[in-house]
Specification:
This protein folds into two domains: 144 residues, NAD(P)-binding Rossmann-like Domain (Rossmann fold); 160 residues, Dihydrodipicolinate Reductase, domain 2 (2-Layer Sandwich). By secondary structure, it is an alpha/beta fold. α1 crosses α8 and α3 packs parallel to α4. It is built from ten helices and 14 strands. β5, α4 and β6 form a beta-alpha-beta unit. The structure holds nicotinamide-adenine-dinucleotide. Nicotinamide-adenine-dinucleotide binds next to α1 and α3.
């Protein structure tokens, strides 16, 4: 693409305004917003005012698809799948926020539809933690350890959602599908060996809408991943640790720093990465690099095909398996007294 990428910003709510727009504006690219779309006109108006996009609509149906090259889609899961399917079919590159669809089945349909169009059409899913500097660094430094059977631990805690959201019936399922999906995606990225079994356990707690769960993922090559996830903590937490077969331990704490905790079993404490204090969240959250990656792909300068719809699909399948243990069938379904 030789001209500047013409972007549609679709869904102008919290994620678009707070987490994507600030970084989109800093991304080194020739991209420019040409239209904002949201049925909530006030939301669309706010984003239009910040970006200076010349057009604003309440529905994707009103878009002149010939006037855009790419779209940033940050809407609830159901319209997300519909919009991505429609735009990709018309040859428009899409950055789609996770989970990218309301169910595994719907994600499968969209992934298949996307694969039927030209490979030149880029579809990226917003699993931003794969781009977070500390997590990416941990992934790099543990590459040799992860090439062998290993043990990985991922902690992912965030306060929201703590109530049913977007037609999902329970708080725990909403949380797993909206936020826990990040942890499942990291698990499949850190250990590429297929996951053969998922066992999930919820710690008993007083508040039915606040929970902590421990999920065990058993990989085909003998690796094991433990996820500790939930919405019971007072603040957002993401940590990841890789235990190598030789007793070495690498850890990324709080998206801040990466350490070699033990080297072949011997305490080390060597710092392998630390964040610059004035990063302003660009690389810490991963939102900046992931958008930059997408915009460069749209401009034809580079393209790494992940995370894409297939990753969203497999992460959704893992959510389904964990939820089988975490949301037991209702009394009526199970036939218990
Ligand atoms: N990557 C992350 O860490 C992260 C964080 C938060 C949210 N998200 C994702 O971003 C998406 C949006 O979340 P949010 O917190 O901004 O929700 P939100 O409710 O604040 O915003 C969603 C916006 O989409 C609009 N919308 C609904 N249907 C639409 C349609 N058909 N066309 C255009 N606009 C439509 C709504 O009016 C609303 O303004 C979700 O998929 C969510 O999972 C990702």
């Amino acid at each position: 693409m030789t001209h500047s990428t013409r972007l549609a910003l679709i869904g102008c709510g919290k994620q678009m305004r707070k987490n994507l727009l600030p970084f989109l504006r800093r991304a080194e690219s020739e991209a420019r917003a040409v239209v904002c779309v949201d049925p909530d006109t006030e939301q669309a108006r706010r984003v239009q005012a910040v970006t200076g996009a010349p057009h604003r609509y309440t529905s994707v149906a009103d878009l002149d698809l010939g006037s855009i090259d790419a779209a940033i889609v940050a809407v609830p899961p159901e319209p997300s799948a519909d919009i991505a399917e429609k735009l990709v079919h018309k040859g428009i590159h899409c950055f789609v926020e996770k989970p990218a669809g309301p169910s595994t089945e719907r994600l499968r349909q969209v992934a298949v539809a996307a694969e039927e169009v030209s490979a030149d059409v880029r579809v990226q899913v917003g699993f931003n933690f794969r781009y977070a500097d500390a997590i990416r660094r941990l992934h790099e430094v543990s590459a040799a350890a992860r090439a062998q059977p290993c043990s990985v631990e991922i902690e992912f805690f965030s306060r929201h959602p703590s109530a049913p959201q977007w037609k999902v019936p329970t708080a725990i399922e909403s949380w797993i599908r909206q936020n826990g999906v990040h942890a499942f995606d990291l698990a499949q990225w850190f250990v590429a060996s297929p996951i053969e079994r998922v066992v999930a356990h919820e710690l008993p707690g007083a508040d039915p809408d606040r929970f902590m769960a421990i999920v065990g993922l058993y990989h085909a090559n003998g690796s094991h991943t433990t996820l500790r996830v939930g919405n019971q903590t007072k603040r957002f937490v993401v940590n990841a640790t890789v235990h190598a077969a030789d007793g070495s331990v690498y850890t990324a704490q709080s998206l801040e720093r990466v350490e070699l905790v033990r080297d072949g079993g011997i305490p080390s404490g060597a710092r392998l990465f630390a964040h610059k204090p004035l990063d302003h969240g660009w690389g810490r959250s991963g939102f900046g690099p992931e958008l930059q990656e997408f915009l460069q792909a749209c401009a034809g300068t580079s393209w790494k095909p992940t995370p894409g719809l297939r990753d969203a699909l497999s992460a959704s399948m893992l959510c389904d398996l964990a939820l089988e243990d975490l949301t037991p069938p209702s009394t009526a379904d199970s036939g218990t007294m």
